[in-house]
Amino acid sequence: SSGINAEYGEQAAMDHVTTSVICPICQRYNLIVRPDRISCEGCEMVVDNTSRFSADQISETLSFATDLHSNNCGCLPMFLIEDDDELNSLMTMQCNFCRFFYRII
């Protein structure tokens, strides 16, 4: 019986990972990565994870996009949740000043 509980605990732990990545929407809480979606611990941000991004990939993509934008523009970009053509949600980084656009997730 304890073996079943241990296996269940391991499976539950693999179902989601609370990351050290701060949510770019609320900028207060950490992101939670699940196989099917990415969400925030505190705000209501949820985005589909159809590409199966890992926490490291999300962190690297956010850093890359932020650096790319800040090298050319001093304004703060916005992070938005939108729907793509297949009605999956996705996160983008956009700047209205310099017209920068980058798909994060």
What does this entry look like structurally?
There is one protein chain. This protein is of the alpha+beta class. 29% of the residues lie in helices and 30% in strands. It has helices at 2-15, 55-70; strands at residues 17-22, 30-33, 37-40, 46-48, 78-83, 89-94, 101-103. It has a 4-stranded antiparallel sheet. A 3-stranded antiparallel sheet has the order 5-6-7, with no helix packed on it. Strand 1 (17-22) and strand 2 form a beta hairpin. The chain is globular, with a radius of gyration of 16 Å. The N and C termini lie far apart (40 Å).
Figure out the total of helices: 2
**C-alpha termini separation:** 40 Å
Strand tally, please? Answer: 7
Could you report the average pLDDT, rounded to the nearest whole number?
86
Look at the helices and sheets and give the structural class: alpha+beta
Topology:
Layout: H1 2-15, E1 17-22, E2 30-33, E3 37-40, E4 46-48, H2 55-70, E5 78-83, E6 89-94, E7 101-103
Antiparallel strand pairs: 1-2, 2-3, 3-4, 5-6, 6-7
